[in-house]
User: Fold this.
Amino acid sequence: MQVSLQINARWIITVDANDSVLENHAVILQDDTIIDILPQQQANRYSPAELIELNDHALVPGFINAHTHAAMSLLKGLADDLPLDEWLNEHIWPAETALADGEFVKDGSELAIAEMIRGGTTCFNDMYFFIDQTAASASHIGIRACIGIPIIDFPTRWAKDLNEYITKGLAVQERFHTNDLINFTFAPHAPYTVSDTSLKTIQPIMDELGLAMHIHAHETESEVQQSITEHGISPIERLKNLDFLNPDLMAVHMTSLSESDIQLLAEHHVNVIHCPESNLKLASGFCPIAELLNANINIAIGTDGSASNNDIDMLGETRTAALLTKGLNNKADALPAKQALRMATINGAKALGLDKKIGSIELGKQADLFAINLNSIETQPIYDVISTLIYSANRSQICDVWVAGKRLMRDHELTTIDEAALIDKIKQWQGKISPFHHQPNKAV
Ligand SMILES: [Zn+2]
Assistant:
């Protein structure tokens, strides 16, 4: 049988329901779809147009970055070592007000997408402005994306009021809705920046279009306290009262949760998006992962934007998630490697409503996967390949990446992005953005 591609790999980390790891198997692709996975000796029934031998490699489902602001990669390192409110109000928002236009988003998104592909990410869930540019960049480069239609109760360079946020967002959704790689959500920034009135306005539109909601919530304890002062209830209780708690909600950060908040999340099957490095760097607080797991809540992992991380490295983020949960709970098995890997792959797919299509290496799924070369000093010896991947490997060992069967990185080289030209463009942005740089140690 003629097929488009056969990949022979030393290990296939499937992330199926049993966390199966297959040794010396082949993955058979017909265009964008995985049509067979079988022992290499039995693969001679196929005549592939291309055969790739990965004798020292693991094939892994592409990481799903369940929360990021791709274009903010231009602000990487602009203002470090500051708490969230000061970081946002005094540095990030002023820089964005001055600079964040369509060109900024186009180039920033391209930088982020390049970094994500190099790190094995094949799908990202984005929240930002000028979403036409992010959707176009993702589509053009060939990565899968979930684009959030932004809603915030103040004017930005993208839109002046609620009506314009909605109208412009829906126009982009309309333009890309037949594109297989591009999905959409509604992305109100956070309960403290979006009023009940605005939330109620978008609700029927979300329902009609079948769009999920992607929102920051409970990022810090002070956000929760402010909500209790102003509304008498926590942000999650407020979303419950507005009838937004359901399996289509992706609630990002989720620190400072009470027992009753956790119960609400569990009862309504809300997805929690955990961004451990952003929470650590901004000292925002801790998401109680062990308690959420006990309550059977779907947890996915996101890097957040590069301005608060400062990398968008899903392998590193997943390791941090595993280590942080162990440490916080004084319990070494509080988040094992296998479970952390599920959070970075299939759980992200589930949060996005795409788990029938992506998130694991299984028959009938889209071929969104990466290969990592484990034949290096850092990752020898290998007793358990998932442990090696999560606790020892580095993203620089990731060498090949496919999205929908298309090879976006070939032996460490991006195939749809001119890396040298991109770096030149980013250096020009650095010149324009550097006046906003926060220098903590500057003499006064
Ligand atoms: Zn964020």
User: Anything to note?
Assistant: Residues 102-118 form the longest helix (17 residues). The chain is about 35% helix and 25% strand.
